[in-house]
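Here is one chain, start to finish.
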Amino acid sequence: MKNIILFTNMSSIQKHWESALKNSYNTVSIQEIDELIAYLAKHDEKIIVMLDEMSIPSIEDALLKFKKYPHAVILIFNAVPEVYHASTLLGNGIRGYENSYINKDNLLKMLSSIESGNNWLFPDLTYFIINKYMQNKNNNEPEFMSCLTEKEKDIALMISEGLSNKEIAQKEKIALSTVKGHIHHIFEKANVTDRISLALKFK
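Its structure:
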């Protein structure tokens, strides 16, 4: 099993993470930033660091220190994730941002996605980024659109405009499960794994 660093001084978060990762990862618990830096300096193999933001005095200072250790894959967690704040951290090399109490199945999906080279952002942050930064669309339709059904084209456009699954379901008057099925097919045909990558194809 692979090692994964759990950085938090909140016992409830630590227990939640340890319980979720049991049988999937070997966890290394660290509570002091200097101890974490010393660990990264001593071990140069690629390692995921799950960082509880509320356990760090200054996340910006910490991220600057981590830049010296490119083998550390930094994932930030916050019990109260805040969209705008999270968006300001994305340029600092973090690969994921989530709620500290993300459920076990989604946490394991997140880690699997990160290990495959993808990024992972909580849904509200994904919608915020699409809405704020990706509204200028190219007039030319992306090539993959010709492979989509008319319904899939409509939904792909709505995703590129930052609509959530629930908003798409309401607008199209279809079930949420149907929206998820369409999105799965759209991602496959567009050869993407997340909403931001899809939205970028429309720029």
